[in-house]
User: Fold threonine-phosphate decarboxylase from Xenorhabdus innexi.
Amino acid sequence: MSEHGGNIIGISQQYGISASELIDFSANINPLGPPERVKILIKNSLADIEKYPDVDYRYLHRAIAKAHQCDTTQVIAGNGATELIYAVVRYLKPKRALLLTPGFAEYRRALQQFGTKIIDYSLTEESGFQPDLRLLDALTTIKPDCLFIATPNNPTGLMPDNQFMQALVEYCEKNRISLIVDESFIDFLPDNRGLIPQCSATKHLYILRSMTKFFAIAGLRLGYLISGNTTAIAEMKNRREPWSINTFAARVGEILFDEHDYIAATHQWLKSQQHYLWSQLSAFPELVLWQPSANFLFFRNNQPDVDLWHSLLKHKILIRHCKNYAGLDERYYRIAVRSEWENKRLIAAMQQIFVYKVF
Assistant:
């Protein structure tokens, strides 16, 4: 099994199901599809396929800096946020790192590549899978060089408390701990600007953002990292492999921040369909759900004789099992919020699996 969602080709080949027939709830991609202007831009730029992209991505970096009211010296774009996870670890060369579990697999893989000693900090079900001020005590004891935290977390979809995050930023800055905050899903939270506004006043804070999920450009791959440590940003730019972002992704990234109607439509869709999925899934007594903040839901299946992943696959529905996340087992799942008809099909399939009457 893949460590990530969206492995449609692998699943279709393994189980003999046409990829075009699968409904993919395993990848947290905006079902509205990319903005129409993105499609037009790529179509009109096809002649540029024979040209190299700007190796410094000047216009892309300017667009990102303008959107976040910072300087281009604080910004580095990447081939998805994943490239930048590896880039920041390559720059920091941490000897000891603290990872919150469960969490995104690429933090661990990047650290392992550089021989970092990894200390796990478990987010338990008893604590609601949420970090609190006890994490600061752990940092005092463990004394790591760096800490990764995702806001919202993947796979739980939970958003840490704002006061806690502020305390964490201040603690790490004071104690010179590199704090890498993954805000890949924060664009789905319309009232949360994240921590980027604090970057200019800090030197140990690194913010990761993804444009892949919100703008539905998974095939293009685009993300960026912002930090007040301009020396670090410059060094990462100097060390990176040339042309890691293709021409079309770079061009698209220059216009996405101006897609205000699309952004508003996405927030409207999510408000409606997140509530629908939450209310429908909450009606299943076999499931325990955690209140979502982003475009996916996390839950536990308490009926051990039901293998929900394989059962839904028979309905040509692919969800994300979470048994390969540290700290979780085969009872835990994550599902993306999809379009209305797809969400209804998921609920109908689960009603059949759990032997409910469908009215």
